[in-house]
Amino acid sequence: MKIALYAGSFDLFTKGHEFVVEKGSRLFDKLLVVIAVNPQKNGLFTFEERKKQILHFTKNYPNVEVIVSTKQYVVSVAKKNGAQYLLRGLRDSKDFEYERNNAHINKKINPDIETIYIECPDDLKSISSSMVKSLVGSQGWQKVVKDMVNEQALSDLLRKNSEVEITKYWQKLAGEDAVSKKWLEVILTKHSESHRHYHNLSHLVDLLKKSDELFKEVEFDSIHKAIISYSIFFHDIIYNPQSRDNEAESAKLFMEYATEKKLMQVLFEG
Predict the structure, then answer these.
(1) CB 181 within 8 A of CB 174
(2) Among this protein's residues, is 41 annotated catalytic?
(3) Given 15, 52, 79, 91, the catalytic residue
(4) How far apart are CA 75 and CA 28, in angstroms?
(5) Each residue of 137-161: pLDDT tens digit?
(6) Cα separation of 179 and 69, whole Å?
(7) Residue 91 annotated in active site
(8) 129 is catalytic
């Protein structure tokens, strides 16, 4: 059985990666897609999130398996899993020089391993994980990016971008002390619940941006700005479509935060 291993950080699984996986699945009896650590890159997604993005695509390829390996050389993972080949995607000559050097080192570690190169088509050569992530945040970025990644990866990008925006607004409002960090996690977790189709992270970002516009048009003092902002963060933070007590329960949760933060003292005596 011919087994190949395709490794990468895959810190956003792109259409370029999909091309290599599709080709590898046809060239080999079995293809192992290995999510590995790249010490030169700061990861945006967890390993589980990356795996979910890959599985969204590989569910259509029964001979492809996805695994996570964080503390072993790629060639060691290949040997452990009986893989005789390393699969690598090439976009340009710069990629080739980099991959050729890696192949030379891998051959020293495991003389039995062979590296196979797959050249990406012209329409995919400009796509990389880092390039796609650099496009996020500008107006209309979703339309630009949607053809570069699959639906799961795009959904993850939307969520991560919302988390970054919410964190920025929250830190400006509440600070970065331990209590504020704890409640930021509560806010992000609550608004990420899978049953939310409207009162979610994106909705929260939209309201926070609208509040910025409001504050530019209407003059509010700092206390009233804080009241409006906290109302946005905590409105429907408790959201059960089957319940009629969402507003009351959300208010209770805000009071828990206000008590822990000593918010009334901060607002009216600070």
Answers:
(1) no
(2) yes
(3) 91
(4) 17
(5) 888 898 999 999 999 999 999 999 9
(6) 35
(7) yes
(8) yes
